Every structure is written in C-alpha cells, then in structure tokens.
Amino acid sequence: MLRDSPKSRSRSARAAAHWLPNGTAAYARILALTGAAQTSIRCETYIWGNDPVAHRFRAAFARAAARGVRVHVLIDGVGSSSLPAGYWQELENAGGTVRVFNPISLRHFSIRDHRKIFIVDDAIAITGGFNIAAEYDGDGVTSGWRDLGLELTDPAVIRPLVTAFDEMFAAHELRPWLLRRIPRRTTPPQARTSEVGPVLFSGPHLVRNEFSRQLLRLLKSARHVRIASAYFAPSFRLRRALRGVARRGGTVELLLAGPTDVPLAQLAARSLYGALLKAGIRIWEYQPQVLHTKLALVDDTLFVGSANLDARSLAINYELTVHLRDAALAAEAAADFDRDLKHSRAITYSEWKKTRTWLTRLRGSWARFLITKVDPWLARRQMRGLS
Length: 387
What we know:
The chain is α+β, with helices and mostly antiparallel strands. It has 14 helices and 15 strands. It has two domains: 16-179, Endonuclease, Chain A, CATH 3.30.870; 194-383, Endonuclease Chain A (Endonuclease, Chain A). Strands 8-14-13-12-9-10-11-15 form an eight-stranded mixed β-sheet, sandwiched between helices. A seven-stranded mixed β-sheet has the order 1-7-6-5-2-3-4, with helices on both faces. A hairpin with a 3-residue loop joins strand 5 (117-120) and strand 6 (124-128).
C-alpha cells in the first residue's frame, strides 16, 4: 500500500481501511464480524475485563467456536488478572483456545503484551487502543473512554498481523527458546533507511523501535503534526523533534489526558509541558472522559495502534502500530481530532507556570524518573536471559 503511485495508493488505502470512531462502534463491528466468521478468529488484548461487555464477547466467541470456527484468544497476565478460575470454560468447551501471555510472576513481571488485534478469516483486522472491557464501551463523550480504532482489509496489513499474532500465541509463556522465534528485525536491511510499514512492531527484545524511528524521520520535514496520546513521556529526541517542527514554522498540536487512570503518568507528562509550550507547541487536555487514543498525524501520514508516546510503549511493552500514508484517511482523523478539541481545555504557558509549586515540580520529576528511568531499567534486567 505504501509503495504504489500516489493516486493508486490513495484509492487502495481508502478501500482497505476505515475508522471506527469510538468503542461502541468498534465493539459492534467486532461482534458482527464474529457472528459472520467462517474459518478463524484471532483476538489479542491487554485487558479482558470481568464485566458484562467482556462476557458478551466471550459468549459470541463460544458460539463461533461451536459452529467450527477456530478461535484463539491471547490475553496479558497482568492486564487480565481480574478473571476468575474457570472463566474461559464455556469457550474452551466449545473448542476455542485461550492463552495467557506471561502469567504473573516476579521474575518477568515488567514484560507485558499491550497489543490489541482482532482478525477474522485472515481477511479483516481491527486494531486501536481499546481493550475488551466495559470502560471502553461508549462514544467517548457522554460515556466510555475516548478511544479510536481502524478496520483494515489490505493483505499487506493482514499478513504481518496474522504472523505476529501466531508468533506471540506460541511464545505466550515467555520462554527463551520460544521468544527467539519472534523476529528481532521488523524490516529487511535494505528498507531500514526509508519509509517502512504498514505494520510496525515494538518489543523489549527487538533491535529498535520502528514506530519511534519512523516518527522521527517524518518530523524532520513535517509541517503539520497532531498527536493524541493517553500517556505522554516521549524521549528527549522526540521532544526535540517536535519542538523543531514548531520553531521552523510548522504546527504541532498535542491532545493529552485530562481525567486519567494513571496519575503518575499524568504527573510526568505535565512536567514536560513548559519547554513544549515555549517552543510554540499547543497542548490540550481532553475533559469529558479518560482519553485512551493512540494517534499520530504527520502531514498526510498516520500512525494508529496500541503504542503510547511513553517509555513503556517505546521500550518495554510488546506493541503494534499501523503506519499508512493516505491524505483522505488522515483528513478524516484530523476532523475527528478537531471534534475532540471542542471537548478539551487548552493549556497556556502562563497557566502551566502558575501550577509549578516546588511540590508539584518535585512530584513531576520523581514521576518522570520512575517512568523513564526506573521502569526501563527494571525491564532490561528482567529481560536478561530471554533475548
């Protein structure tokens, strides 16, 4: 999709991808696809809740398995730790298979599977920020966390997603000999200096983070940048690149969380606002609900998936990001971004400065230290022997 001529690329992208604007729309589409599935269902998620919304998915998957569809579900050991023993019996009795990635243990606690993938019949895939849980079911304004998904049908996207799921499904116990089956390099050597995609994978054992690398590459010449991120603590290089866009006359707009489920991450993010605002970057905090969207728009290129712009997503978790260049699809996302801004509070430098008491600065510094230094250090130690 990314290597055709501009006109054919645009036509193929429009036919092969469309937005799912909130959790309600995404859930309805996944359940409809589940009901129509003929051969296979793959579902990978960080959180599977113990609530009526998740129970509805479990029942739908069980009905699909009972009619002969191969159903594989992969959940994370920490993210889905609320599930009771025997929770999956209905699905397993129907013929489905459920695996837990890295069940809770102190030895490798930090290594998590944060990816979100739903694939039906090796033909249609959905990814984005939402897990399978009640808090994501809503329009993101009046109810439910604010999130975004993308439905894809292009074989160039489906094939790597299927392969990635199957490899992680096999390596779910986090054993060294299984993890070595997951490729260390996400792109061939000849492509590593140019645009790659359409799926970028992240993980603690990979050589480099392709999402971060491709974003940095595009920021060098970007004119218009819009980022929505639930948790925001990017590397110094990324922050410098964003400031560079604004200082050479481009526009950079950040939509970050107002209400949040991770106060420590918000403390870290707010400690970074000052330098960004002084450089001319505009920042908003979303107000009606918890913002959980993971989206980056750089001119006519978009990145959407499970990865936030923070140290855990960029250096620790297993993540995936879909990377497409399509002006029409990016324009739709930009219009959605504009609608979100109407529900957001703009942050000014003078207002931010007034909040920076010595205690606030201390708490922000400690939060950033824990998130960007301690957490990656601990993950690297726990990854020894697995890479």
